[in-house]
Design a protein that fits this description.
Blueprint lengths: L6 H18 L8 H5 L1 H6 L13 E5 L4 E5 L9 H5 L10 H8 L4 H11 L2 E3 L7 H6 L8 E5 L13 E4 L5 H11 L3 E7 L11 H7 L4 E5 L4 H11 L4 E4 L3 H6 L4 H7 L4 E6 L14 H7 L4 E2 L5 E2 L6 H18 L4 E6 H9 L7
Parallel strand pairs: 5-6, 5-8, 6-7, 8-9, 9-12
Antiparallel strand pairs: 1-2, 2-3, 4-12, 10-11
Helix pairs in contact: 1-14, 1-15, 8-14, 13-15, 14-15
Length: about 350
């Protein structure tokens, strides 16, 4: 690692270059790259061990052949521990010591394969190129997204007054929507009545900062009436932001390309952990574990990996998604954009000069 900039420096540099792209598109961004990457930490002000995430739901642990990021942010994740590692979670506390003992004797690849099959956000640092990158044709870290023309371009060339429907949650998608809102768009945030944005369970001031000036709509998305109402809203949108794994939209009978194709000028931006297509498209991931999967990490004095900042893949990806969306709107729209947290983190880790 001699001569290589620390992960935080690379992440900030990547964010600054994305902000420069937004400014070239005529969009002012509140704060510097460092400000935005550390925004949640400013609100929460929580010191931590660098092998533990900000909320202590994700930890880096040694395995038989390397390191593994184990992320258990949801209460139901503990119920999967018996199937994943053969251990029981008998209280509300995550049994981190027992998990560490169990993963120490296992292969990192096997841990990820089994854990992800169960729906757990487990990752390991990258081992060269993989099937997901090759299938998505995103091996080049300078292009960590897929952009497809699937509809007709429209007359709109600016975000001013555009209707943005935001179906995303947590940090990356809402940050993208916040940037578009600051550029003059009207943002309507849509949440399920049964599964609202998990970001509401975090710091309230941070959540309000992300959604400042936006409108809220709550729909029963598990019911046909809720899906019908959502479809009517989507058919009026100029921009749609979402962060669901493909099967979640499939269950509602929603296909991004079809929505974009129904009207001219629409932009659909998907922000997911590993991308909407490819063999890993249904894998689970959040900002901390996908950063590790992309190789965006630091090494301590003993050569052991550490987290870079707080869920760093989230704000990095939110900024990239905002720049891609704004650029697409300026070109008339009619496109789908598929951005993966892991691929943006990989781009930053390799100090790639992004080709917009």
């Amino acid at each position: 690692m001699s001569g290589v900039a620390p992960g935080w420096v690379r992440a900030v540099d990547h964010a600054e270059r994305t902000i420069a792209r937004l400014e070239a598109l005529g969009i002012s961004v509140i704060g510097t790259g460092e400000d935005l990457l550390s925004k949640r930490a400013v609100f929460t002000n929580a010191p931590r061990d660098r092998r533990r995430s900000m909320g202590d739901h994700c930890r880096l642990m040694p395995t038989r052949d390397g390191w593994c990021a184990v992320h258990l942010p949801r209460p139901d994740d503990r119920d999967l521990l018996p199937a994943w590692l053969g251990i029981e979670a008998t209280s509300d506390a995550i049994p981190w010591e027992t998990i560490a003992s169990a993963v120490a004797d296992r292969s990192g690849i096997d841990l990820v394969d089994v854990g992800q099959e169960l729906g757990l956000a487990v990752s390991i640092p990258p081992i060269g190129e993989d099937a997901q990158l090759r299938d998505r044709n995103t091996v080049n870290p300078a292009r960590p997204w897929i952009r497809r023309r699937v509809g007709a371009p429209g007359d709109r060339s600016s975000l001013d007054g555009a209707l943005v429907v935001d179906l995303s949650s947590l940090w990356a998608g809402p940050l993208c929507a916040r940037v578009l809102s600051d550029a003059g768009a009207r943002v309507v945030k849509v949440e399920s009545t049964t599964r609202p944005d998990g970001g509401r369970e975090g710091d309230r001031a941070f959540f309000e900062w992300l959604h400042e000036g936006q409108e809220y709509v709550s729909l029963p998305l598990a019911e046909p009436s809720g899906v019908d109402e959502l479809l009517r809203l989507l058919d009026r949108a100029d921009v749609i932001i979402e962060g669901s794994r493909p099967r979640a939209l499939d269950r509602m009978g929603i296909t991004p390309a079809e929505v974009v194709g129904r009207r001219s000028g629409v932009v659909w931006t998907s922000i997911t952990a590993y991308g909407r297509c490819g063999p890993w498209s249904d894998r689970v991931g959040f900002g901390d574990d996908t950063a590790i999967a992309g190789g965006l990490l630091d090494l301590d004095e003993d050569g052991a990996p550490c987290f870079v900042g707080d869920a760093v893949a989230d704000p990095l990806t939110g900024l990239v998604a905002a720049a891609l969306t704004a650029d697409a709107v300026g070109r008339g729209g009619g496109v789908t954009i598929d951005v993966a947290l892991r691929e943006v983190a990989r781009s930053a880790a390799q100090s790639a000069m992004v080709v917009w």
